Structure formats: structure tokens, C-alpha cells
Request: fold
Amino acid sequence: MTLAPSRLTELPEARRKFRFELPSGDAAPKIARTVVTDLLALTGHTEVIDDVSVMVSELVTNVYLHTSAPVVRLDVSVQHSRVRVAVWDDAPDSDPARRLTGPGESGRGLCMVEALASRWGVYRPNAERRTRKGVWFALDHRSRADVVPDLAWGP
Reply:
């Protein structure tokens, strides 16, 4: 799967936010990495591809391993010097932060997210209905002199 525009200047300003869904399963992390890598390459954020790819893979893997969600949804926001990704699941009561300190093999992926991300957290938009949660990260990166200058990036 690849994203369509052949030139960076063809991306309209309103397309700074992307959402996609894919079936949860053992292939979901690879599919998510491929889509996000293409998106970052098309928007000129090549220097963060490796770190974002690792974090996306870890969060999508957590959905596959620790929830019964049939679908994984990703929201990706690409700004001038920041990339933000949220990975949504249907297990609002699970606590990813707790796995950071647990013994054994579990939780190492979130330790990687914590080490690589500028910020990360858990978002529960409908706490009273307890229908879903999103684990998100933001990655701020260096000066963006390589971005096409005529794109007006917001804050």
C-alpha cells in the first residue's frame, strides 16, 4: 500500500492529518509501518522515519497482543517540525503505563516509545462510556529547512 501524491507540493494543506484503519493481526504492525513510512517520506520528514516506524510498530503490536480489537485505527498528524501518532484500541481499562514497570518480557516496547518520543501518553476520550483508548506519541525534530517553503504549516 502506498500513498498517492507523486510530488510533495501536491499535498493540500488540509491533508496534514491522516487516519487509516487496518485489520488487527500479526501483519498489522508491518502494514502500519509501511503506510506511515510512505506518509513521512511524502511529507519530507525522512529523518524521523526510523524512530516513528519503531514506535508505530510497538503500539500496533500491543493492540494485537493485548486487546480483542478487530480493527486498529491510527491517526497521524504531520506538522512542520513534529509528528504525532495515536493508535486506538477497544480496551479502555488496560493500562499501558503499568506495563512499563512490570517484570518479564512484556512492556519493553513501551519503554522504547518512552525513550524515543518527545512525549507520549494515553488518551481516553469517552471515560464515562469506556469504549476505547488511544496510546499516542509526539516526536519533535530539528530545524526543517528541507520542507517545501510554500507550504503554510500551522502550530
Observations:
- The two ends are 30 Å apart (CA to CA).
- Helices lie at 28-42, 49-66, 96-99, 108-116.
